């Protein structure tokens, strides 16, 4: 799932499309009296149900990669190196959508087949690339700091800004042992792999521990269900989970996988980051925050203690990273994506 070159295909084939028929039946039963369907990119059945029931639908996208814009080219996980070669970026800009359609057309065969079976007309394009957008409304639920609207975005797109939720709004607090650790010394480096990459961490935690030890820094390791390392020094703590909104702002730097949720919370916290992208949208998110001047990147296959320590040293010793991250944090915290999205949804309902 988190393989750089095959991870996207695995997710689409084995998760999104493998459950398409079951999801279609469940949604069809649930949406009989619905006025509107709002869905994310991964719920391909939602569009089919909306078309069959003849009700409007809204697509929500969470990251700039969803648009594959020629004017603001994204880093494709299957071909990340092409965007780093001099002179090839222009080619990439012009060919990103056609290439993506070719790479993914076979993945969507289940969609084409189900449309035929339920009597819907053929699509004009690829439901994963250029023919996935709602004709009514598309909500781009990320910050304009990461990407601004482009001429080849759907004309009915509204850029809302980030929407933040990690449980802390419901009163969830930091674990007591973590709170005690944070109060006992200098701000630590936080290491996390989000909600997906954490299931296949590889050597991430082992190399991270070595890197922090060589720097003489404190660290917080968010490990999910992974077994914490034995005999951690007192300068480090491992916990399964902590709300990013409460933890990140108390760090000196954050090392993460580049998922859009983690990226958003790191930007909101105003802390410099080191990103080691695994797959899907993560390489593109990593490239975007690096361009902002708040982050550096270490390729997943090159994630070693020596390289990580070197990059962290650059982040922590160059005040420009912290200054830029602080500046962007102020801007990001002022975003009100949820309310903007709700206003747009209400207008769509009124027009239906």
In words, what does this structure look like?
It is a single chain. This protein is an alpha/beta fold. It folds into 2 domains: 7-162 and 336-351, Rossmann fold; 168-333, Glycogen Phosphorylase B (Rossmann fold), CATH 3.40.50. The chain has helices at residues 7-16, 20-30, 45-53, 89-104, 109-117, 176-183, 204-215, 244-247, 260-269, 282-292, 305-317, 319-333, 337-351; strands at 37-40, 57-61, 137-140, 157-159, 189-191, 219-222, 236-239, 253-256, 273-275, 295-297. The strands form 2 sheets. The chain has a 6-stranded parallel beta sheet with strand order 7-6-5-8-9-10, with helices on both faces. The protein has a 4-stranded parallel beta sheet with strand order 1-2-3-4. The longest helix is centred in the N-terminal third of the chain and has 16 residues, at 89-104. The mean pLDDT is 91.
CATH class of the largest domain: Alpha Beta
Report strand order across the widest sheet: 7-6-5-8-9-10
Major sheet description: 6 strands, parallel
Cα separation of the termini = 39 Å
- CATH-scheme architecture of the largest domain: 3-Layer(aba) Sandwich
- State the CATH superfamily name of the largest domain: Glycogen Phosphorylase B
Backbone shape: elongated
Radius of gyration, in Å, reads 21 Å
The assigned structural class equals: alpha/beta
Number of strands: 10
Which segments are poorly predicted (pLDDT under 50) over 5 or more consecutive residues? Answer: none
Mean pLDDT: 91
**In percent terms, what proportion of residues is strand?**
5-15%
Portion of residues in helices?
40-55%
CATH third-level topology of the largest domain: Rossmann fold
Count of separate structural domains: 2
What is the tally of helical segments? 13
Order of helices and strands: HHEHEHHEEHEHEEHEHEHEHHH
